[in-house]
Amino acid sequence: MAKISIRNLKKQFGASVAVSDFSLDIEDGEMVAFLGPSGCGKTTTLRMVAGFIEPTAGTIEIGGQDVTRVPPHKRNAGMVFQRYALFPHMTIAENVAFGLEMHKVPKAERTVRVKQALDMVRLDAYADRYPRQLSGGQQQRVAIARALAIQPKVFLLDEPLSNLDAKLRVEVREEIRALQQRLGLTTIFVTHDQEEALTIADRLAIMHDGRIQQVGTASDLYERPQNRFVADFLGKMNFFDGALTADGNFATTAGTELPVGAVTGNASAVGVRPERVTLEPLTGNLHARTGIPVTISSLVYMGALIEIRTRTVHGETIVAQIQNGADTNQAWMTPGELGLARFAPRDCVFFNG
Fold first, then answer.
1. Hey, which residues does 211 pair with through a beta bridge?
2. Which helix (H) or strand (E) holds 51?
3. Could you tell me if 177 and 11 are in contact, meaning their C-beta atoms sit under 8 angstroms apart?
4. What is the DSSP track for 280-336?
5. Using CB atoms within 10 A of its CB, is residue 353 exposed (0-12), middle (13-18) or buried (19+)?
6. pLDDT (tens digit, 9 = 90+) per residue, 189-203?
7. Strands of 278-281's sheet in order across
8. Please, what is the angle between helix 92-102 and helix 107-120, to 10°?
9. What DSSP element (H or E) covers 228?
C-alpha cells in the first residue's frame, strides 16, 4: 500500500478553474472521502490522481514516487467508476481479468487472482455469467473485484453507489469499507452523499468551487465546522446574523437575543444544529427569560425524526428536530401554538462572514 501526497494541485479548462490549490496527504491504509456538491472539483481531482486528467499545476505522489506525468496504467491504482464500465460481451471472469491482461500478468497467475478477487466480493459462483445476468449491486461488486485484482497501491472510487437503490447502497458501502480495512488499502472515495461519507471514511475533505473547505473526521466537521458552507452542507444548521453583546448574548440583526454564553473575539453569525434545539409549551411564567419565545409554523414527519419549524416574534425561523416517539410531550406541538425554544451555549458555533 502507499501514502498519497497531493501538493498545490490545479486544473484549468480554458478560462474555467475546476480545481485550485488542492493540497492533502492521505496516509497509508486510510480512506478519505471527497465530499461536495456537483461541480465542486472532486471527480476532477480523483481523475488527476488516477492519471486520466493531466494537472495544470501541482504534484501527485503515490508511495513517495512522483506520478504527476506518469500514465494511468503505470500508477498501479485500482479505479471503480460510477457506471461500472463492464464489457457486456465478456464474462464476469473475463471482465475481472482484463486489467491483469493489460498488465501482462501470466495466464496461470491471472486465473488465481481472478478467483481471489471474486471470492473477496462473494461472486466466485458467477464467474461464467455475463453482466446482463447480474443485478446492479452485483455488477458494482464485479467492478470492485476488477480494481482489486491488479493488487493496486491505491483504491479510487468515483461515486460508486449512485446507481444503486437506497438499501443496496448501504449494503455495498459496508462491503467496500470492510474490504478496504481488511486489505489496508489507501483509498479515495468520491461522493456527494453526506451519509455515505460520514459512515464510510476515516476523514472527509469538504470541497466547494474547486477548493478544500475543511478536512477532518466526521465528528470534527459536524461539531466544529470552520465556515458556513461546511456547516450548511454537512447536515442542517440554524443560522443567525448579528453581533456578540457584552452580557453573553448574541443580538441578531432582526432583534432576537440568543443566550450564547461568554465568548471572546468577534462573530458576525452563530449557528445551532436543529437536534440541539428543544421546545417547551409557553404556559404561565415558564422561565421565559432563558428561552426564546416562538410560534410553531409547521411540522414535517421524517420517519425517525419530526422537524418542527418555528418563528420568533421578529420573524426569524428556528428549526428543531426531535426523535419520533421520544419521551417528550409532543401533543401541544401544532401550528399556531406558542412555545419556548432553548439550546445550550456549548451547542453554538460562531462564524465570521
1. 208
2. none
3. no
4. EE--SSSSGGGSEEEEEEEEEE-SSEEEEEEEETTS-EEEEEEETT-SS--TT--TT
5. exposed
6. 999 999 999 999 999
7. 278-281, 338-342, 292-301, 305-312, 317-323
8. 130
9. helix 228-233
Cell of 291: 428561552
Query: With contact defined as beta carbons under 8 Å apart, do 176 and 31 qualify?
Result: no
| DSSP notation for 136-190 | HHHHHHHHHHHHHHT--SEEEEESTTTTS-HHHHHHHHHHHHHHHHHHT-EEEEE
CA atoms lying within 13 Å on the CB side of residue 259: 13
Instruction: Look at residues 38, 8, 33, 23 and name the one whose alpha carbon lies nearest to residue 156.
Output: 33
pTM for the full model? 0.89
Share in percent of the chain as helix, strand, coil (round to 5): 30, 35, 40
Over range 19-48, report the average pLDDT. 96
Cell of 231: 456547516
Q: Are 304 and 246 in contact (CB under 8 A)?
A: no
| C-alpha grid cell, residue 178 | 470492510
DSSP track, 85-146: ---TTS-HHHHHHHHHHHTT--HHHHHHHHHHHHHHTT-GGGTTS-GGGS-HHHHHHHHHHH
What is the helix (H) or strand (E) element at residue 31, kind and residue range? Answer: strand 31-35
Q: How many CB atoms lie within 10 A of CB 120?
A: 19
Which three cell numbers, joined as nine digits, stand for 129?
455469467
Instruction: Report the share of the chain in percent with pLDDT over 90.
Output: 68
Contact 322, 330 (CB under 8 A): yes
At 146, the pLDDT band (50, 70, 90 cuts) reads very high
Q: What is the pLDDT of residues 323-353, one digit of tens each?
A: 887 555 677 889 999 999 999 999 999 998 6
Do residues 344 and 276 lie in contact, with contact meaning Cβ atoms separated by under 8 Å?
A: yes
Residues near 4 by beta carbon (within 8 Å), at least 6 away in sequence? 24, 25, 26, 49, 60, 61, 62, 154, 186, 188
